[in-house]
Amino acid sequence: MKEILDKIQAKYNLQDIAIQDNNQAYVTVGKDLAIDMVTYMRDYEGFSHFVMMSCVDWIEDGKLQLLYLLNSPEKKCDIGIKVFIERNKPTMQSCHHLWKQIWTYQRELREAFGIDFPGSPRVEENFVLEGWTEMPHMLRDFDTNKYAEETYFPREGRKTYDPATYMREKLYPKQPVTAKKNKDDE
Amino acid sequence: MSELDINDKVSEMLNKSEHNVAAAECFEKTFVRPEDEEREVIAPDGSIIKVNPIYDYFSGKKPTEEKPCRGVIEKFLNWARAESIWVLGFGTGCGSIEIPPLMTPRFDAFRFGLQMRPTPRQSNAFIISGYLSVKTLKRVIRSYEQMPSPKYILALGSCTINGGMYYDSYSTINRLDKYLPVDVYIAGCMPRPEALLAGFMKLKELIKAGKAEKANEYARNFDEYKANQKKIIKDWNMPDYNW
Q1: Do B121 and B44 fall into the same domain?
Q2: Residues B123 and B213 placed together within one structural domain of the fold
Q3: Do B93 and B149 belong together in one domain?
């Protein structure tokens, strides 16, 4: 893994290289070089299997982060190529010509995060939702609770209990509280 | 009269029939798909026929209330209805996994006169099994309205009562009774098949007592239900009345 990264580090100006183990690494590249690098990894380094494509909303930095995860069946290793794009009117170069299933991923990302992929086939069609007129629902500033309250007639009198406390009170009312601390809390 | 003339007559009749006009009036805002658009097609004999799939195949009449028969006859009918509940095989959420065991020897719902049917035209009970997304609600409304009256809805699971664990989801509804009339609620997350059977027993009691009249309530408050449905189904690309 390391040899491959050493070879292309200068070429693609890789930043933030995280080698998880021998089989897995994540790198961040610039927006302009990302699709170039995905193509290079597919054609020259044997990463012929496209695993998935996803997006993370970094609302504090005003960025969206796209992740292209590729796998090499020969070398048995994965590489994740991360790209930061602007959060305001996000656009990304389409790479549907490399693998056909990317059509679907890009359609989903367009619906969920509002990212435009010009030239990607059928990218403007509905993916999961029908007739959605609000902002993209997976962005972090979309308040799903507020939307549900305004839209779906919440039933009055609904209460939420902490399951652990509630069950203890109901099932073992006489037993003193001896809650064990989690190892993670210490 | 030649064949061509007959075809012209028929197509004229189709275009001018009463229910088409009524359906067109109630169907103002549309998100019509290309295959549903009004268009002219060439018949095998060369004549041109206008088709309008959404209006041609559905009635434009509102549902009407069905008045009960007199005394003993209505009691007899209710007994008969209670003993043959035909359930539409339509699973909406995670609760649909509770329906197949009903038909196995262990729970054996056949002994209560229940059976599953593949089409809404043959069914009179609808189990809303769990959470209901807006996308599914559209199909549910369409199926429910195609069922012949008297018809009953069983709402299964807490999702149909108050949203359950999906109460804050942007895509699932909270209260089913705002969109469709519910006869029996079965609480739980998930209710076991026994609970589902108990719900059917309750439904049978209600039917025998003549109290399962929610289909009539739907007809009575049709405009209110329709307004609620249209509030959340924004791409309403079907007729208002689907029977």
Answers
A1: no
A2: yes
A3: yes
Question: In terms of CA atoms, which chain A residue is nearest residue B168?
Answer: A145
Instruction: Mark whether B10 and B100 lie in a shared domain.
Output: no
Residue (of B59, B32, B56) closest to B146 by Cα position: B59
| A17 at B interface, C-beta within 8 A | no
Residues B135 and B212 both lie in one domain:
yes
Residue A27: both structure tokens together: 């790198």
Q: Which domain holds residue B49?
A: 3-56
Which of B71, B74, B65 lies closest to B207, judged by CA?
B74
Check A131 against B169: CB less than 8 A apart: no
Q: Directed axis angle between helix B18-26 and helix B3-16, to 10°?
A: 40
Angstrom CA distances, A58 to A52, A93, A112, A113, A139, stand at 20, 20, 15, 12, 9
The minimum CA-CA distance between A130 and chain B, rounded to whole Å, is 6
- Among A67, A70, A54, which Cα is nearest to A104's? A54
Contacts of A147 in chain B (CB under 8 A): 170
Q: Considering only CB atoms, which chain A residues are within 8 Å of B233?
A: 130-131
Number of structural domains chain B divides into: 2
The verdict on B159 and B191 lying in the same domain is: yes
ipTM over 0.85: no
> How close, in Å, is residue A142 to chain B by CA atoms?
10
pLDDT one-digit tens code per residue, B100-123: 899 899 999 999 989 999 999 999
Which among B135, B175, B234 has CB closest to A133? B234
Q: What is the pLDDT of residues A133-142, one digit of tens each?
A: 889 999 999 9
The pTM score is: 0.81
